Amino acid sequence: QVQLVESGGGLARSGGSLRLSCAASGFPFEYYTMNWYRRTPVVGRELVATISSSGGSTKYDDSVKGRFTISRDNAKNMVYLQMNSLRPEDTARYYCHASSEDTREIWGQGTQVTVFS
Q1: CA-to-CA distance for 100 and 82, rounded, in angstroms?
Q2: Strand intervals (E) in 3-86
Q3: pLDDT of residue 84
Q4: The 18-25 sheet, strands edge to edge
Q5: Residues 59-70: pLDDT tens digits?
Q6: Rounded to whole angstroms, how far apart are CA atoms 108 and 15?
């Protein structure tokens, strides 16, 4: 079964940290670019961070640069998002997303992150 399953969301105080995890199964994970998106009712969907299939290249939205770190473990079919110095505006539902060169896409069900001041 092709799926992405996120975990690690929850409540955090402003300035705190959370680590999101995404477990992939049912597809050749090592060939897919992995992304973390987030969605809020006001802003809509944002691309937060991207990591290449090998893990050698990463990109971040300016709003999280220097605070969030995306990483992956191809041996375990896992991708992570370490979120430090959290702010209330980081409150959102975070989604793991996989994309291939032939435009195939896979979405997880999301995990809620709520940051309070």
Answers
A1: 23
A2: 3-7, 10-13, 18-25, 33-40, 44-51, 58-60, 68-73, 78-83
A3: 98
A4: 3-7, 18-25, 78-83, 68-73
A5: 999 999 999 999
A6: 27
- Whether residue 93 has pLDDT greater than 90: yes
What is the token pair recorded at 22? 């995404």
- 63 touches 49 (CB < 8 A): no
Rounded Cα distance between 46 and 39, Å, is 6
Tokens representing residue 73 in the block = 């473990």
Residue type, 30: E
Nearest CA-CA partner of 102 in 50, 31, 30, 47: 31
For residues 83-90, give the mean pLDDT. 97
